[in-house]
Structure formats: structure tokens, C-alpha cells
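Quick note —
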Amino acid sequence: MSDYEVVIKNCNSIDTAKIVLKRECLNIKFGPNGLGKSTIAKAIVSHARNDGTLAELVPFKNRRKVDAAQPTVSGIDGFDSALVFDEAYVNLFTFQQDEVVKNSFDIFVKTPEYDTAMDEIEKLFDGIKKAFADRPEIEQVTKDLRDLRDAFGKPNKDGSIAKSSKVLKAFGSGNKIENIPDALMPFETFVKSENPSKWIGWQIKGKEFLDLGDACPYCATALPNPEQKETALAVAKEYNSTDIAHLNSLKEVIQRLGTYFSAGCQESLEKITKAKTELTAPQKSFLNDLKNSIEALIQQLDGLRNISFFSLRDVDEIDKKVSLLKIDLSMIDKLDSDQTRAVTDPINAQLDKLIEQVGNLKGQIGKHKAKIRKSIEENQGSINGFLKSAGYKYSVRIISEPDSYKMKLVHDDLTEFVESASTHLSYGEKNAFALVLFMHQVISEDPDIVILDDPISSFDKNKKFAILHQLFRGKDSLRNRTTLMLTHDIEPAIDVVKSMAHKFQASKPSATFLSCRKGEVKETPITSEDIRTFAKICKDVIAESIDDVIKTIYLRRHYEIMDNVGLEYNLLASLLHGHKVPNLKAEGRDMSAQEKTDAETQIKEMMPSFDYETLVQQIEDDEVMIAKFLETDVGYEKIQLFRIIKGAHQDDIISKFINESYHIENEYVMQLNPHKFESVPEYVVEECSRLLQDE
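Predicted structure written out below.
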């Protein structure tokens, strides 16, 4: 298979970018900040997803220009899906209250193999599911049974029905809707209306105004004698609007369930719901038995309706469990009716068929549990191995939930699970978790291309290698996937191309260096030979036919890196600072003639053309130095020459960049030769040129 030759045009600051992606390999693209690496990532993702976002990358210079060239990406027409890890992914990464990450079940357990096994198991339950589907009224019946059961409330300690329950509040003192007291017969029309509780509530609210005068607070009719007032107050004494509401709603439920009760049960309920006086002990006992019967039927219906791999997953003796699901109405005789049997008989018949296949069911569930267990152990082991090697004091456990699996977070110093991981994990820890879990999401979703936009530059060296090892070395990792890693950190390239290349061979890594000039992004392959110590790079450059002042810049750097800051280093430092008489800065004195001669002798072994007096004259001449600045095309040399030119350096930001990034504090042991790899951002070189021109 040929490589992808990707061409990106007119995207943000990029006029043209040409990069090569090797198929099913790790492609590391290393380059300085400000180059446009994130733009490259966005362009490729937008093109692969074809989601219309590519148009958002139109360069500012082209906006509002009718005929301006639009963003385009070519060379990857075979890509239809992409997953990208970047800062936005980390920010959107959801750490849940009760699990480490949202959808951990989908990411770590729910594989295509898992789905296939689940489908095979679910087929065994098709008959039972169909029995429920063929009788849609079962849903309403079950709901009504639950409403009636809930009306009994929480029982007393002796198991009897509590007085505070809806059932006893509605019927405990007799049905005063059916049996209206004689004093309230004038209100019969209202009491027996469709919604009497609303009328009763309205009536009761008015009683507080009766003491204000002798007129009725409802109609303003005169109430001259006490008996008339008593009649108005009688409603509040006899009725409670809430209890009446319970009575009405329970009556409706009982009426809907009517034919599902046995004949004897219906007769007893009729007596209870129309009783004139307080319920007797036998009647309350009957209601208690009815509640237990309802509870038993609900449990069995729910057990059959929800029968699945999950409901049987943790059962030791599945054959016994399935047999117990059969509905025996003779044991719940209060619900033993033709109507109830019309529901339960077809379900029981399908259950009998399942019982005939229970051996097959047990085998499939057992096999599926074993595969899930193995998958969980592998995922846990992989993630926890990474966390340990990276020095984190966290681990994860994937545990079973009633109808799923969830990944929980554990800390070495805590016995229970860590709740709300987002409040406990540092930014670096979140980033590390997000990156490793991103890998598992890639495995789960299997996109055509994976893009890692500067994924590990914020980590220390040990964690960087641990993450690279996790991402690209394991069996279930990103190896053998077309992966683009964009980074301003050279260490990934050093690890996979040079120092640890033997460990990453399976990922078939390639590394290239990205540079940008005048809107054009180019790449240069990085080989193992290109990654060298800067001391060796300095020697290689000094051996070339280049300007002697530039040679002294590299030579001084060489002595500095080798921690050889003796006479030779001091002579070169004095030269580059334009001192006619060299000095020993640390000792606060000038060099003696002999010390100068000794230093020159050593320097000439590496740079035969070295002549202090000649070179110091050139360094003191700004025109000569500016000419040298303009002659070299190497960014590193330009900014070092810029530092030397007196009076030209007035920009604090550029000064910080040069001094910290490319002079004193550059601590990389291994680097790329700046003569071959242009690592200085274009804006820095341009700013140096501008400042020199102004000067």
C-alpha cells in the first residue's frame, strides 16, 4: 500500500502544507510552536469527517474576498472517520461522579464480540419478550398493581397496615362518598361529583371566614341561626380533601383491575370500598394479604419482563432461578382469575420452552462472563500498569453494575472508591487519564486516522515514555493504525527513532521535521543519525566552510555543553561580547598574555583559522555583522548573530526567546542540526530582521 501524500491549502496561516503519512504507522511530525500543527490536525479531521468545519479555517486575509481560494485537503480521500486528541478533548473529557469516565462500559467492555454474544443469549428470551409484546395491556395492569401496592405504604413493625397509608385514609373510616351523613345530604351533588376533593378543598377554605359575620362566605346569604353555620362547618368535620382524593384514585385503579381479581376477592373489595363504618380486623387482614399477593405478582412479572444476561449474570444455579420465575396463581389466589391467566399462561408457556434449553443458556452465560472477565482484567492491567510506571498513585477497577459495568477510581491511600474524580485529579493526571482512555476509545470506535496534537509535551521525561509505551507497544494499542502525532517536543522522536527504537519497531514509526516559511510548510525526514548531541552537532558545523564568527558561536556552545568553562570558553565569551582584551569574568580580571595564547592554541585544534583580533574587529562593526546576519539562512545562526550586534536588541519577548530557548537554558542532550532542520519560528527571525532594520 502506498503512503498518503497529504496536501493542505489555504487553512489559517498555512498557504500550502505537504506531508506524507505512512499507512498503519506512527507518524511523528516535530516542529516549533506557531508553525500551524493544530491547523494541520483540524484540516485533516474536518476533511475526514466531512462535517463542514473545513470552511472555518479560511485565512483571515481571504475573508470577505469573493474569489479567494478556499481551504482544501487532498490525498486522504480514503478517510471517513477520525479521532483527535487535543486540548479540547481533554477539556471536554467527562469524569463522572460515580465512574472515572462517561461511557466506560461502551469503551472497555462493549466490543463487537460482546454484542454478538449478547445477541445469541437474548435470542433465547425472544419467546418471553414476545409474550409481553403480544399483550400491551400488561403495562397498564402492572402500573395499576404498583399504584395499589404503593397505597399500602410502609407497614408497621408487626406487618400490619399503617394508619398513615393511603388505603386506610381512604377506606379505614368507611366510604363517606357512598355513605353521605344525613346532615350533608344537601351537598350530595357536589360530594358525588367527578372530582369531589376539589370541591371539598374549596368548601373547607371558606370556613375561616364564617366568624367574620352572619352571612355565608360563599353566597353572602344571611345565616341567622347557629344551626345553619354548623351545616356549613360540617363538611370540614366529615371530610378531608386529600383523603377523598386518595379514595377516588384508588377506586379508579380497583375498577380497572376488577377482572384480574378472583371472584371472592372482588366481592370482599366491594364490601371494603363501600363500607359505612370503620374497617374490621378481618378486612384489614384481607387487605394485607392482597398487598402481598400484588407484590408477588409484580415481582414475577418484572422478573420475566426483565430476564436477560444481566439478571442471571450473578446467579449460581441458573436452572433453579429460571424455574422460580414461573407464575403460580394458585399461590396468589386473590389474583387467580381467567383474565389474569390469559396474561400469565402464554408467558409461562414460553418460560417452559426456555427451561428446556436451560443447559444451553447456562453455557452461553458462563462463556460470556469468562470473556468479559478476561477483557476487564486485560484493560485494568493495561491501565494500571501505565499508572504505576508513570508514578501515579491511582488505579482503576472495572466492576459490575445491575445492567452494565463501570470503571471506578482507586487511590493507593484509600480503601473505598474515589467519588467525583474531576475534583481530585490534577490537570496532569486528568491529561494522562484522558490520553490513555482515548486510546481505548480508538480501539472501540476504530477510526480511519488517529491524530495526537501535542499530547505529551507537558509531562516529565519518565511519564512521556510511559505514555508512549502505553500508546504504541501493547497488543491493544494504537500500533498498526494510521496515527499522526504532531508535537513541538523532540523527545518522542528521540525515543522512537533513536534511543528506544528497538522497543517501538512494531509501530513502524517515522519522524519528520516540520518548518514553515512564507506560509509554506515542508517536512524533512528525521533519521537516527540526525539525532545527535549538540556537542557533536557543534563539531560537525565547525568543520563546514562557514563564516568564522558563526563557527565561534558553535564552538563556545560546545565548550558550554561539555561543561568546559576554562580559558577557551572565556576567550570565546570575551570575543562574542566584543572585548578587545579578553577576561576571566568569574575571577574579575583580564587574561594574561600567556593565558590568551594557551586558549588560542587549544581552540585552533578545532578551528585552525581562529584569530581573536581579526574576529573582534568584525564583531565590533555592526555593518559587517548585519551583513553576516543577512547572508546566513539558518535561523539559529541569525538569532545568535542578532544577540551580538550592539544596540539592536530592544524587544524583551524576543530576548527571552533567544536567551532561554536557544542559548543558556537549552538542556536537550540530543538535538537536530540547525543547518538541516530549521527550528527557529519564522516570526522570531522576522522580528530580529525588523529590529535590525529599525536600528
